[in-house]
Structures are given as C-alpha cells and as structure tokens.
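Good day; I would like, with your permission, to put a structural problem before you. What I wish to show you is a protein chain and, alongside it, a tokenised description of its three-dimensional fold. Please examine both parts with care and let me know of anything in them that strikes you as inconsistent. Thank you for your consideration; the sequence and its tokens are set out here:

***
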Amino acid sequence: MRSLKHQILILLLGSLFLLAVCFLAVLGWYMKDRVVAATIIKAQTDLTTCGEIIDKTYPGSWSVQEGNLYKGTTKINLNNDLVDYLSRLTGDTVTIFLGDTRVATTVLGSNGERVIGTKVSANVAQTVLQNGQTYIGEANVVGQWHQSGYAPLRAENGNIIGIFYVGISHAYEQEIITRSLITMAVLGLALTILIALLTWFFIQRVIINPLHNIMLGTRDVATGHITQKVKVSGAKEIEELEDAFNQMVEQFQSFTGEINRATSSNRESEPIEIDTGTVTESTQGSEGVIQTAAVTAEHEQKSELDTAWFIAEEELPKGLNQTTLVQITRFLQANRRPLSSEDVAEGVKLTRVTVRRYLEFLEERGVLISKLKYGIGRPVKLFIPS
C-alpha cells in the first residue's frame, strides 16, 4: 500500500497533468482561430506590398505581347528572380498568372519542379478574372490548401489579363500552433516540477513528520514503555491530534498510578506473622527510637499533605485528575519561584495547554498568584506560590 505522502503527491500530479492537458487543448483551439485570422491579414498585407514592389521595380503597365505577360518592358513569363525575391521577402508562395495559367511561380509540384503551366482553381478564376474582385481565403493550390490572396492584373485599357497570387501554407499555420504549444508545455512541465518539489517538502514537514512522531508515541503506549508526551508542529488538525494524544498519555499515566497505588495497598493489607517475644524485647530496648521516628513521619506527612496544596479528587473540576495535580504541585513546591506555564510544562513533561488549566485552577483556589512579565513581544504570565 502506498504511503499517505505518495498518495497526496500522485493526486496532485494527476490533477496538474489533467489541468495542463485541458489547458493546452483549449489553447490550441483558441490559437487556431487566431492564427487563421492572422494569416488572412498577412495575405492581404503581402498582396498589397508585393504589388507596390512590382510597380516600383518594373515601371509601366501590364500587357500581353506575343503570348507572354509583360510589366512595362520586362517579360514576366519564367521570371523566377522576381517571384523568388517576393517569396523570400514575405515567406509566402508567389505566383503570377497569364489569364488562368501560371507563368512564374514558387509553388513546387510532387517532383520538386515549379508548376508552370498549371491552372488556377475554378472558383478563384470566377471571382478574379470574371468578376474582377480580389479573392482572400482558403484555396487549393496544386493539391495543397493555402490561406491565399489573389488580385487581378489589369492592362492599360482596364481589361483583366492575369492574376497575382500570394499564399500561406496550412503547414505554416500548424507549425506556429505546434511551436507555441510546445513552448507552453515546457513551461508547464517546469512549473509542475517546481510545484511537486514544494508540495513534497510541505507534506514531509507539515504532515508526514508530525504524524510519524505521533505514530512512534502510540507504539510506546502499545508496548507500555511511554516516558513522555510528543511535541509536534504542523497544521491545526495535527496540533489537535497532538493534544488528543497527550491527553491520552495523561490518562494512561493516571491509570498506571492508580494501579500502582492499589497494588501497594493490597500488599500493605496482607497479614504479617509477628514473633511477640522478639517485638517485646525490641520495643523495650528501642522505645526512644520509635517515638523519634513517629514524630519524624508525622512531620513529613504534614509537610507533604499541606492543606493549602492538597485537594481531594472530588473537589477537582471535570477534566482534571489528582495524579497530574500532585505531579504539578510537587514541581511547584520544589521550585518556589515565578514560573510560566511553559516552564512548568517542560519540567513535568506535560503539554502547555494541560498545565495551564491546572495552574489557573490553583490560582482560583488561592494556592498561586499570578503577575504579567513585560518585555519584547507579548507579556508572559508568571505563577508564584502564595
């Protein structure tokens, strides 16, 4: 069975992975629409930019001479330098049509050669050549889909004699999306690793270590070798578990003390055979010693059971027991000086919360008086035997 630490970590990492997958899916869907919109704008811009470059580089009007397309005095048919330059400048595929036929292009066929002599798609020819409109949108360019821009080429008399084309491949769009998603995935992975390390440290320090200490304490209780209470720091629930365990320890110690006292009482009540003659002789020879011992015992009993400190079991409030009270009062009698609840708790090996209840009870009975000691930070309450 996996440990609590591993279960929490697996749950966290699984949640982060699921969140990352959902985030990347939504991001990819969102980016697809944004990239398509961006490529449409790019096609429009590149179409205009390339048209102005051609006009400035080759002055004059478009014309058809001897079956070839001219711009001014420059022949455009098979003018690879022109289309290659515009392609490098924009990153697009570039084509110039005479009518509906390619006469200069950067578009390559399956054999790796320029597809000179191929036709434009029918819907583009209808829009550009017959209707005289600019076409912006998706188009099938020699078997591959592109985000395209087609503009009519007009002769000096206004007749449409050709088409100028720029296109952005869908593979280019996909590359942009993939590159962006990979970047986001790498950043997400790094963030996940960082969160996992911080979570591992937090779980180990705040949950696992305190629970481990309490577990060791319960083993001591189970084996009957408990010597002191546990002291842990962690979340509120962990501290409540610590208090519950320490209260159990107190009850265990009280129960053990009652068993020991009961055992001692049983032993003292057993009948003892006494040699009368020996006792008589011993008594006559040591009467003064016995009287002295009796007086000493009486003084010790009075000292230990001082009426100011001794409180019967039935007088204690609910939640307090006499064994713990005796343990605390003996410590206070042995250390007659101002003590805080932390000092007493450390001396008797009990929790500060438990000790404070007993000290406040003794203060109510008038056995102790308290005063506040001021210094740096919060004032400390000191208890002094009255």
